[in-house]
Amino acid sequence: MKLLVLASFVAGLMAASSIAGIVARPDKKVQTVAGQKFELKQIVPTQFGDWRLLPDQTVQVVNPQTRELIDSLYSQTLTRTYVNTAGYRIMLSLAYGDDQRGGLALHKPEVCYPAQGFTVLSNQEIAIGTKFGEIPARQINTAMGRRTEPLTYWFTVGNTAIKSHFQQRMVQLQLGLSGEIPDGLLFRVSSIDDQTARAFKTQQAFVSDLLGAVGQLDRTRLSGLGKPI
Q1: Where are the domains of the chain?
Q2: What pTM did the predictor assign?
């Protein structure tokens, strides 16, 4: 009797999984839904607040991946260095993938930096406060030789900034049920600075200035945030 009940239960699970697989099979990329246009080079301004683009990017931005791998993982990337009137430099690195199913998951900096020879000195979860709300993010301090590079980053899936793998899977499932292929963005800022507290404070100010300089739709795509609160 017990074996019969167990067999019925397993069969029910298999049937439910099959139905869910059919129902949740997405076929529309988010970029094509409602005719949305998402071009990183166009939506991220070259000047905002006290920051301006540094044309000559003499500082090497960490990127351990080959061009072939980057092209296979992401549909768009943007790497820029900005400087303020005090001469402080912030490196911005964005990677957007219009299909984040399966093996196309965006890579974490705590994996990429050690691949380049850096040591991760600290890694903590934070919430970046802005006038539009809080962004769940991580602050990591890294070092290689004499170069100390603190960085701040977060991931978005769809229009949601995620803080865990479980939340990522839930957002992906929600998009799948609506017929949309989950997209994703890695937003990363870093600076070469041996004063970690100053670096993180300046990076948060940079993020706040940047998000305040873009439109509501683009701000949501970049950070999951919308109107001012």
Answers
A1: 27-223
A2: 0.77
